[in-house]
Amino acid sequence: MTELKMPIYMDYSATTPVDPRVAEEMCKYLTTSGDFGNAASRSHAYGWTADEVIKQARHNVAKLVNADSREIIWTSGATESDNLAIKGVASFYKKKGKHIVTMKTEHKAVLDPCRYLEKEGYEVTYLDPEPDGLLDLEKLKSALRDDTILVSVMHVNNEIGVIQDIKAIGEITRERGIIFHCDAAQSAGKIKIDLQEAKVDLMSFSAHKIYGPKGMGALYVRRKPRIRLEAQIHGGGHERGMRSGTLATHQIVGMGEAFRIAYEEMDSESKRIHVLRKRLLDGFSSMEEVYVNGDIDQRVAGNLNISFNFVEGESLIMAVKDIAVSSGSACTSSSLEPSYVLRALGRNDELAHSSIRFTLGRFSTEKDVDQAISLLRTQVEKLREMSPLWEMFKDGVDLSQVKWAAH
Amino acid sequence: MSYSDKVLDHYENPRNVGSFDKEDTKIGTGMVGAPACGDVMRLQIQVSEEGIIEDAKFKTYGCGSAIASSSLLTEWVKGKTLEEAQQIKNTQIAEELELPPVKVHCSVLAEDAIKAAIDDYASKNGAVSDKQSQKKLA
Q1: What is the pLDDT of residue B132?
Q2: Over 60: is that where the pLDDT of A100 sits?
Q3: CB contact under 8 A, B35 and A386
Q4: Which of B17, B40, B63 shows the shortest C-beta gap to A315?
Q5: Which alpha helices (DSSP H) does A18-154 contain, by range?
Q6: How many angstroms away from the CA of B45 is the closest CA of chain A?
Q7: Contact B105 A407 (CB under 8 A)
Q8: Which of A86, A149, A316, A357 has the fewest C-beta atoms lying within 10 Å of its C-beta?
Q9: How many CB pairs under 8 A join A and B?
Q10: Phi and psi of B41, rounded to 5°?
Q11: DSSP assignment, residue A239?
Q12: Residue B127's pLDDT band (boundaries 50, 70, 90)?
């Protein structure tokens, strides 16, 4: 299949390349040689065609998650979907209550709207995950109150790839009459989602995480029982008034095609990726002081988040510049900011800093994995030879007892 | 983050990585920084009877700039007297390596490391008062 250029791309959770089949479909809806009409134009064929292809895309997105087409609202991406879901529910149901429950390991697109609502007088409970990254359902139950209107828990975590039990969460929230929003940006197209079965009321999707275009997403809004939202963007009353703005036909078609392909190929693809992930993990397992972050079994196939102890994160990223991966350390400013997700799991700063997230995907190969293993092993060894902490560890010094000259 | 070629060179081919026996009286050891801050630098100097730094070694846990700052420092201090080495300023290191402003703290750490190594050598060799007077001058 399509060869990606160097560095080897292992950052599929950040974004994915658009599948060539998707790109081909999208190109049909841009120029005069294609169908460029506005779906809201009801008086001519240009508009009717656009309306028709958008209907088909809506159907494809709904089908992947076993929902009804009428439950899909187009947005600009999962961030907008999260904002619409959280702020939209908070605003519509504020007379019912002003308490929201979420997790500390949620994406910023959930946490930041929650912070915003706190300033607006809402109260938010941020639950800690267990050390394996999963939510303890008993803790969720005890956080719920009579004035709780919304629970927002993501399906698959973007950093550590762990899968939350959304079916069990849905049972708890439905029984209490609380709305359940779930960010599925990292799970759609990777693991099975059945919205007839799981009692999720609102679900956010992104196109570019599953080989569709950037700038495109959707929000699932349940019809039975009917979930109401206060629109966040007002205009022409598109998307049943929930999200105005001319529909981006080519983007929507791209998302629809990406979801259609995912429906067809998800099972075989995730099996193949799981084998690659296992190969990657096996390649590191004989190394000392290597820690997998998050539960390894309850995890999406493509994700491996691993910490190499006694190696500093930024130097590690520099050392592996031939592989495109993410680091748990955001060292772009003078102050190091280790990943808040890894911190919430109880990882210390050093381990959080020295973590690397590998995310494999549709175009990853065995050769990519083998190269990554060999490069990582060589570079970690080199950096450890240079690390006074590694030397102290090998000499049996308990580093937690050392008095450091902090600066 | 874009690094200068000099930083990349020191990072990829670090000079004088290693350790001396820190109990040896000819050796001065300075270890500065903390793991939680993301940098730990250990600099060791081997000093002749005439007070000349004959050899230097380092180990650093830290970003590329921290590794480069300590690597460069080991090159600079070799052949210098303790007094001369004491005069090395972080600004000289930052300038030589063209460190971006957010990485200047790495050069500060390197300056602290050589001062700590000299202090350690001096205290082992009973020259505490000398060292303190030098510190005042610096």
Answers
A1: 47
A2: yes
A3: no
A4: B63
A5: 20-26, 45-64, 78-92, 108-119, 137-143
A6: 15
A7: yes
A8: A149
A9: 91
A10: -120, 130
A11: G
A12: low
Q: How far apart are CA A161 and CA A305, in angstroms?
A: 8
Angle (nearest 5°) at CA A367 between A365 and A373? 110
Residue A216 has pLDDT above 90, yes or no: yes
CA–CA distance, A28 with A16 (Å, rounded to integer): 21
ipTM of the complex: 0.89
Tokens of A216: 């495109």
Q: Is B63 in the active site?
A: no
Q: Is A352 on the interface with B (CB under 8 A)?
A: no
| A253-291: pLDDT as tens digits | 999 999 999 999 999 999 999 999 999 999 999 999 999
- B38 contacts on A by Cβ (under 8 Å): 312-314, 329, 331, 336, 349, 353
More confidently predicted of A320 and A203: A203
List CB contacts (< 8 A) between B31 and chain A.
388, 405
Amino acid code (one letter) for A76: S
Residue A397 contacts B, CB cutoff 8 Å: no
What length does chain B have?
138
Range list of β-strands (E), chain B = 27-34, 39-47, 53-61
Average pLDDT over residues B65-90: 95
Which residue is it, tokens 């607006």? A120
CA atoms A158, A162, A168, A173: torsion sign: negative
User: Is the C-alpha dihedral spanning B86, B92, B98, B104 positive or negative?
Assistant: positive
Contact across the interface for A387 and B32, Cβ inside 8 Å: no
| pTM for the full predicted model | 0.90
pLDDT higher than 80, residue B131: no
pLDDT score recorded for residue A329: 62
The number of CA neighbours under 13 Å toward the Cβ of A199 is 14
Instruction: Return the structure tokens found at A263.
Output: 């429906």
Residue pLDDT, tens place only, A11-69: 999 999 999 999 999 999 999 999 999 999 999 999 999 999 999 999 999 999 999 99
Q: Which residues of A are catalytic?
A: 331
> Closest residue of A to B41, CA-based?
A388
Q: Give Rg (Cα) of chain A.
A: 23
Start-to-end C-alpha separation, chain A: 51
Reading the block at residue A276, the tokens are 């690659």
Cβ contact, residue pair A407, B59, below 8 Å: no
Burial profile A270-306: b = 16 or more Cβ within 10 angstroms, e = fewer? bebbeebbeebbebbeebeebebbbbbeebbbbbbbb
How many CB atoms within 10 Å of residue B98?
A: 12
Mean pLDDT (whole number) for A87-94: 98
